[in-house]
Write a structure and sequence with these properties.
The chain is an alpha+beta fold. The protein has helices at residues 33-40, 84-94; strands at residues 22-24, 30-32, 52-53. The chain has one domain (22-101). Pfam families: DUF1272.
């Protein structure tokens, strides 16, 4: 099940479970849309994959037992392990390659 991480790994912006500006890669790395668009250029600094909007888990049960009440979002905040120079170097050689061919 998707973890729904609580923050942008780059700028530490809060990304609550209902945030429409949250973006994730296939490994659930989580960033805000602003960082993805203006710093990362759709390149995950952890895996070099692309990003998609993070799905929004229902706040209330529309189906019995299926909502944030029963599957709460994650609470562990994440931070990048790479410095900005390393990220910029990866982005520079990757951003022009479509995610589906990286």
């Amino acid at each position: 099940m998707l973890e729904l991480r609580p923050n942008c790994e780059m700028c530490d912006r809060d990304l609550p479970p209902e945030a429409t500006e949250a973006r994730i890669c296939t490994y659930e790395c989580t960033f805000c849309a602003d960082c993805v668009d203006t710093v990362l250029y759709n390149v995950c600094p952890n895996c070099a994959g692309g990003f998609v909007p993070r799905p929004i888990r229902p706040a209330v049960d529309r189906r019995t037992g299926v909502s944030r009440v029963h599957q709460p979002p994650g609470t562990k905040r994440r931070k990048l392990k790479y410095d900005l120079d390393d990220i910029r170097a990866l982005v520079a050689v990757t951003k022009d390659i479509p995610p589906e061919t990286r």
